[in-house]
Amino acid sequence: xxxxxxNFNNLKRQKIQGDPSFEGTQMANWVxxxxxELIDLIYKKVGELKITYPHNKDNQKYxxxxxxxxxxxxxxxLLKHVQE
Length: 84
Description:
Elements: H1 35-56, H2 64-83
Helix pairs in contact: 1-2
């Protein structure tokens, strides 16, 4: 786990707030969840990418650019949430 020995909810105790820009996007699914859940998913997605990419970097079905963009969106959401 990303948070062994640390409570990432200390970064921001409030739940993730909604935003009009979230409507119709995957970000809407995060409204009401906590900081730790978001950080855990980011950590998991980066870990999966580190393991999978070296063995499948030439495989078109993995759509690496989409996977990386999705991680960037989650990081953006985390930054937005913590700064509010």
